[in-house]
Amino acid sequence: MRSTPHKSLTAAACAVAALAAVSLPATSASARPATATACTPGQVVANGGFESGTSPWTQSSTSVITSRAGESAHGGTTFAWLNGVGSTHTDTLSQSVTIPSGCSTATLTYWLHIDTAETTSSTAYDKLTAKIGTTTLATYSNLDKNSGYIQKSVDVSGFAGQTVNLVFTGTEDSSLQTSFVLDDIALNTSGGTTPPGDSTRTPAAPAYTVNLSSNASGTGWTGHESATFTNASATALNEVYLRLWDNYHGTCSAMPIKVSNVTGGTAGDLTVGCTALKIALATPLSQGQSATIGFDLGITVPSGADRFGYDGAFNNIGNALPVLAVRDAAGWHLDPYTNNGESFYSLAADFKVTLDHPTGLLVPATGTSVDTPGSSGRTITTATASKVRDFAWAAGPFSKISGTSSAGPAINIYSVSGISSSDAQSMLATAKSAVDTHAARFGAYPYGELDAVIDNNYWFGGMEYPGFVLDLVSTTALTHEIGHQWWYGIVGDDEYNSPWLDEAFTDYATDLAQNKTGTGCWNSVSWTSTSEKITNSMAYWDAHSSRYSTVIYGYGKCALHDLRRVLGDSVMAKVLKDYATSHWYGVSTTAEFKAAAQAATTTDLTSFWTQHRIEG
Which of 22, 130, 280, 563 is the most exposed place for a label (fewest CB within 10 A)? Predict the structure, then answer.
């Protein structure tokens, strides 16, 4: 669960202003034939990090794209610096881009830093405008000054099929400088009608072996990771991509996740904000062939009570292990990180993770853990997990209580300082009940044990990982996060492009566990635009973050309550349990769920999906 507004990230101090001008094609989108066109996912901005000179950018002066002192890059050494003159001045930066037709998702992202000598807290003297065509995407000013880079994300899917100029324009008034600094600009496209090809998801059957050793506080980990995998596709596998998700929490010049000394392939450049690393395989893999890559790994946990961060002496280490990206008929899924929700899409895998740490630190983790003595004053925790999509752990001087649910799984509650014993016991009781209740509805919990880390400082409410959750002291939130063991964990989905398949289904499961029927909840639905849909991707929700929780969690679960009323309680219960069984350790899609629901009734559900804005 990640239901709060997008959190800003900071980086090294830098400043940038940029403009992108757009020219519309002679034939409007509405005038073009409505035939479906294949969408080949890709990134259409060239030289978005400015590391390859100035081409194909058009700049108002030769000083816009620069590496001069006074500001710094988000990644690499070069950036775009607009304004910062301190007198009446305009700078522009533009590039013509083509957004492929047939793509339902097109997301413009860029990293922006603003510093200013203006002292006002109320007047926007100096401004940066981002435009595409004649459409203004965003406007910033000296009032938006910040201490480092912040990533901005804008949905530009309405321009699919058009060739346009991307424009950033910075203007200053007669005194007091404002610098607008821009770096790592990208425009990623995906979705829609996929090109013909092999729809098999690959690389399949990943198995990860990890050996890491921590520093005294658990904020730093170093060691080695290897990944063995098989090409399940009829199309040869020439490369793989590692997702280094937690590099979002730093900069490309100061990465929290560092991979080096790659074996089994050749590492390429980091892309997607340094969260994707291409590795060209030593030998292309035909269908059914397997390979292993290995690499040294360094993890630096940043400050903050987050899913990846430390809160005092307590470390949360989620999404830190590099995992393999997924390739299917749509190509490689290399979506950007979202702090508003989840971007994570991976296939079920096996993990064996050995963590060498000071004995004073308890280390709850995904999978079943065994502790053995290490060198003087240290303990080795070996965690083994089968058929999980990710691996997460924590490290700190936790208080621990344990129990067993009625159905058998072991439950461990790890509390930070400040959590009362009565609250810990309450969370243990909630976890036992939630595991058993969800298992009765959707299928037996398969992971042996469940660890829950409780901290009252989490700004995000809670977060799910296989066999491991982070949570506040909250019965509803913990029941929700444990529900994710089924909806995202066991029944997987593409969390970036179909977030409703895990969040709405889990919130619906939470309602059922708490005997809430959702009666009348759809009556309060009010859409803000025709483009707002339950099935929108995180690209849309990052651009409309204030509506994310309302639509994905609220409207999503209400739609499932409504579907239950259409199908009947017993039929809906059977649909979900059978659907979970048929997708156990697999991947769910909206189309497959709609088909399963339709197969359970003679009522035509077409108008239901339309009314509830469930597309796909």
Answer: 280
- Find, among 78, 195, 563, the residue nearest to 555 by Cα: 563
Give the pair of three-digit tokens for residue 297.
Answer: 């790994």
Element containing residue 92 per DSSP (H, E): strand 89-98
In a domain? residue 309? yes
* Statement to judge: residues 242 and 375 lie in one domain: yes
List pLDDT tens digits, range 371-391: 999 999 999 999 999 999 999
What is the DSSP code string of 401-433? EEEE-TTS-EEEEEE-TT--HHHHHHHHHHHHH
Does 1 reside within a domain?
A: no
Q: Is the whole-model pTM more than 0.85?
A: no
Residue 175's domain comprises 42-192
For residue 381, give the H/E element and its range.
Answer: strand 378-388
**H helix intervals, 206-340:** none
- Whether residues 539 and 455 share a domain: the answer is no
At 102 the pLDDT is 74
Instruction: Compute the CA torsion angle 239, 240, 246, 247 (nearest 10 deg).
Output: 0
Nearest to 46 by CA among 151, 186, 160, 165: 186
Q: Answer yes or no: is 20 within a domain.
A: no
Contact 211, 224 (CB under 8 A): yes
